Fold each of these.
Amino acid sequence: MDVVRSNVERIGGIVEVDSTPGKGTRMTLRVPLTLTIIPALTVSIGKQHFAIPRSAIEEIVRANGSSVTLERVGGAGVATIRGRRVPEVALADILGLPSEVADEERTLIVLRPAGGDVYALAVDRIHDHEELVVKPAAPAVMATGLYAGTTLADDGSPILLFDPAGLAQVGGVRLETLERGGRVAEVTPAANSNDVPVLLFRGLDGARRALRLGVVDRIEEVEADAIRPSAGQLRVQLGEAILPLAGIGTGTKLEGKIRVFRLSDGQHDLGYAFREVIDLMTIDREVIPAEVPGAISGVTLIGGEPAELIDAHWLFAEHLGALARPRTELVCRLPEGDAWMQNMLRPIVEAAGYLVIGESDELAADVTIVSHGNPVEEGQSGRVLRLATDPDAADGEESIYRYDRAGLLLALKAASAGAGRR
Amino acid sequence: MNELLLIVSIAGSRVALPAASVESVVELEALIPVPRAPDHLAGLSALRSRVLTVIDCQRSLELGVTNLTAEGIHEAAVVELDGHHYALTVDAVEDVVEALSEPTPIRAAMGPGWERVSLGMVETEEGPLLLVDIAAVIAGPGAEVRAA
């Protein structure tokens, strides 16, 4: 296996052995399609050039960028890249080469060695992408553990190709921290954080608006006839779901394809129609709050022009008001065999927020509704409502005339209030 | 037919390399250092689209340092070992001679560096010469420590 590994790694491949006691072993051999040509990025430290296999590179960020901070924790470098903490090592330190570039001026290459977790490698300069014909280096060179091979660059000079896993090892980035590293740092943006990513878009009425990126789940495109008013408000059909739709003013003509943001608060979704996305921006200026609460929470300058900020909270509160009400598990027992109860009463009870069960269900009921004169089993029935077919038989307390809608709802409400107090 | 020997001088001493294993003698051009590699590994150089690993023989023998960055011609003998090409830096390449005897052990005390790379003494028309073990030169001074 050692021989296989060294030979597979020699051509830029990976050997992985995953073994579960008692179940078996899975061996994975990953071999590049073209055996000897490896796409690589050339970097330099001081005057010397090196190559890094592109397959291991996850991203490249500037150390002095706004989303990156470098810290020293007990002498070890830790880079925070968009809230993710990754170990950081400077290539110049690993190689013991002098470098005149300050830490902040360097470029961080986020590497993910085969099978490991990410770490950031600080290099002085990034040059070019090259397709390199990699050849194994002499054993003494390979013995350093840093290199995967040698090759000739475009100008004919030899260039060393790094082994990202070896770099981490020599650089002191421990493998066990590699597995668990790269954890997400709990960074709560300050109230006046400069970096709130927003999606700048143009509404159907042509206004520049911005929406915090976090609430946008995805963007969908629907036919205009998928949008129609129903049950009191505009709704859009997105696939299997029917969602309340905002962003359409009264009298707006809908034609052709309409683009819709699918907003999500984690539990409920909401559509927001718009004309086009302008760009992904950050709010960098003060927000002037709106006078009255509404769909627009305020105005701010984005990209040098004013834009209205959408108040996602208001949208959800307005459009999902009833739906998003927290559900207390209220249970109402209705006689299963009673057609009137099932067909006429059940929708009203369900609309009042009850889960309707039958007599044979085991669940404890908060309310049990029976016809006047029918017996009620003791225990697990909660409050008992008797419905009378004759208005005269109803006393308004325990028994209610079955078409006394207001009285029924009142009784159901009283029961739910009672259940809430329990 | 007797073995042919290439006479080179390393650190001021004339020694013999088995000519059969020497592919060519080149003048080294730009040298790319290999960070973290053993000291006697001077770097990499290119020769006709091939990468040469340059071995500083003086360092390998612990007899000093070859100044490869200085101006001038740096001669090196190109050898192949286990599929890899190496360039051994030498002070000068002098001649090719025929060995007149089998290598015989040298009983006198040699310098520590030489002792390690010695294959023995061979008689030539130019007098007795030390026959150098190329693999030992490439392995460098650290090899014995690792092997022990």
Note: Chain A touches chain B through 25 residues (CB under 8 Å).
Amino acid sequence: MIRRAWSAFLVLLLFTTAWPCGPIVPTLNLVVSRIPDGSREDWVAGRMGLLQPMLSTTDLVVAWRWLAGVGLDATEQKALLGPALIGDPESGFLAWTQARAEAGAPPRELKTARVEDYRELPVVGDHALTLAARTLRERIKTFGKGSVAVRSWLAAQDRVFTWEGKGAELLPEATTASLPLLIQQDRGYQLAAARFYREDYPEAVEAFRAVAEDGASPWRGWARYALARIHAKVGSIAGCDLDAEQALAHLAKLQADPAFAELHADAAALENRIRFLQDPQVFYARLLQNLGAKHRGAALLQDMEDLRWLRVLEPWTEGLKGTKPAGVHAWIHLLQDGTLDEALAAYDAAPDLPNLVAVMLVLPKEHPRAEAFLKLAQQASLKPGPVYATLVSHRLRILVAQNRMKAAEALADEALAQPDVARWPSAFNLWSSIKLAQAQDVDAFAAHLGRRLASIDDGWTDWSEHLDDSQDDRRTLKALDPMAVSLLNEHMPLGQWEALLASPRFPAELKPELVEALWTRAAVLDREEVMLRHRAALAKARPKLAKELEAWAAEKSPARRKARAYLLIWEHRLWPKLLTFREEAFQFGTIFARWEGPPEPAPDPGPIPSSGGEDRGLWDYRLTLAPAFLDTAADREGTADFARIPAPLTWFCEQALIFAHAMPNDPLASEALSRAVRSSRNGNRDARSAELVVKAFRLLHRKYPDSPGAKAAKIYHQR
Amino acid sequence: MGLALLLALPGCRRESVRLHEVPSRVLWAWESPQDLRFLKGDVGVAFLGGELHLEGQGARWVARRNPLLVPPETHLMAVIRVETHGAELTADQAEAFLDRAVGLLKLPRVKGLQVDFDARDSERAFYADALKKLRERMPADMPLSITALASWCLDDGWISQAGLSGIVDEAVPMLFRMGPEEARIRSRLARGEALKEPLARFSAGVSTDERLPRPRGRRRYYVFHPGSWTVDAWDRIARDLP
């Protein structure tokens, strides 16, 4: 958590001399686009925050049901919040490996998948491994570890999972009458399963049938499931009369057998697959009907999974090629791939809330119907409800684009006063950014620059870490608005930093980072009086620095004081590296809105090609932050401050060289030089760094060749 | 050793000879069903072979789940994606990386390997070491490519500083999904600013859903497309590529 907040603040000390800066800074917003805005519990209960088009199929179906007035009842909500239908794909593997170890068996290689078309196709599924692990443990409990029965069972099961070998000698051995009945019953199923994994389907069907028809076998339900699965997987088999009707009949018997309740959900899913294969059109029509039906109960979870599965298969689904998506499926397409014209046509054909949302998501400010839709959206968001956060956010987007900032601010005020705003980080961040852009004084600026980190955006795990997304996190301010940070960095003088810190409206939870950044910036700008003013506050905010700060303040020699500040900053990494910030920003996984800054000097024309909906949901506000309190004089001073800040490596080297020349016999001199040289490995640099690091290196090794600092800095890095 | 040295000799100024057979257009085929049989001519495919998640002391492999279909003559490069989540970066984890990476080379017709790992500062030493070991286990003439954050190539220099010249044949700067730095990086590239990282001078990674940056002197473009590639998507971007 600290790291998260810290990273957001790292930019406060951005060091560069090469970047262009201007008086107007476009804002960025912290908005998630692939997970619900707020908790899943709130989402499924209809307390929805900002609806984004690239949410998962399940989350969009939930949203559609609420918008369409279908909603979800308590049973449906509970089912959706329960365990996912698809579990951890590694759990079976781990369970089986562990169970074998508990049986005293030596480790054995297990291949669970084969490669085809450059992908891995699972052969031995997680289900099978979990079941095998559970059975092994039960048999150990019944017959004892190391017993003949368990050894026989395990040897057979190992052969079941050795599916690459085709020879009959690699099949599980037949049991003898001396083995317990349970082991003999197990063996029947093991033999059938071994045939199945080897794709000897006719033999597998025969063997599974024998088990299914044995009313005493504890495996009869599993065998029925396996028979249906074989049909779903390979269809009709030469020389075998297993057809769809038989497969469905097996599943019906299985679902009617209370002894196999744990298989009922899987049986229902498999039944759907078979019915889809039988007649995709009929299946699809029924699926859409179910998804729009009230009180589907726990079956809704499977419906959603079926739609997700169909959507995953979309480009490849032969049976549905040419079928126009309908119902919620059509709506999802509209959100993710539809054009404005398509959204308008959908709304004109059916002027309901889902279609209103579809229009508002893409409606541009200059459209002839913009005013009409703003009014419709206003009427639809008069009171809080599932659509409130989404419609308000898009009304704001359009108002801002139309430069109607007063109206936007009034709407943002109204929205931020909603009690539910604490639940929705994305909506909160968007709405706050409008208030921030309109801030007229330091207090207003302080009041609205806090942002909530909205958990990770799970579609972007490429550069993200999983964040703790507890309710507390959502409701607590954890970061600054990124562009407010740019304003601080590049335009605001130290005096305004201090005013901000002193403001009673500045979020208390963010103050430790601000005081740390302020103190460090003051050190770099050689403003010791500012450092002294905030020493106690920094020591309180960062107790681990307290002793060093005390030593720094007690130091009589000004040169040594500077050196101590330098070493403190170096030691505690108070000087963040620009590159670290960039990567850390990615690690947060917080999606920064697509934004367009001031005109770029070189032309790079052309709209973003529309190649799908992948980039939808990135926010497109174009706010400007030009607060009235930042007058020309303050801006000039802040800009001058910023221009004086060198790259970290340059500053480290400069400070070390100044000190070493001033107090060459001081023990801190070699240490300061050493740390400057070591910074050349990763420290961000500017045009002066190269020369300075060489000077620091030479001085260190010429003057202090035997010092620990020289030994720790045997090389320097140069580009 | 001799061959490896020879292959590495061109160094910074010329592209590594290992890359000579890699086409100038390479599609990134990510984790979606990819039917690329429509490709014609000298177009390569770099496909995600799997993701290695390093967590704590563990290593979890998530293999490619979606099919990839390509014309028989397509130049194929396997991509291994590495993700870390509080990883301790142990020797076992390095070994897991090597095993998985080398495992991808055994896939049919794979002629090169690309590693996609946005290593943080603290992970760079581990990454560089793992790449060096990986090179030792790869055929001497097989290209080893890595993806690189744009910031690594513009202002940083850690790849070359870590002694990866001659080990890695190219670092492909990913000029898309650049986050908050996007506008500034685009602006710098548009002004003609060169990428400082020597290994990043010959190729660029772009995406079909973002404006094309115009970096100087690129010979090879890797192109990302969200979701499944289509003929239209490829035709559109192929027309726009320099």
Note: The longest helix of chain B spans residues 91-105.
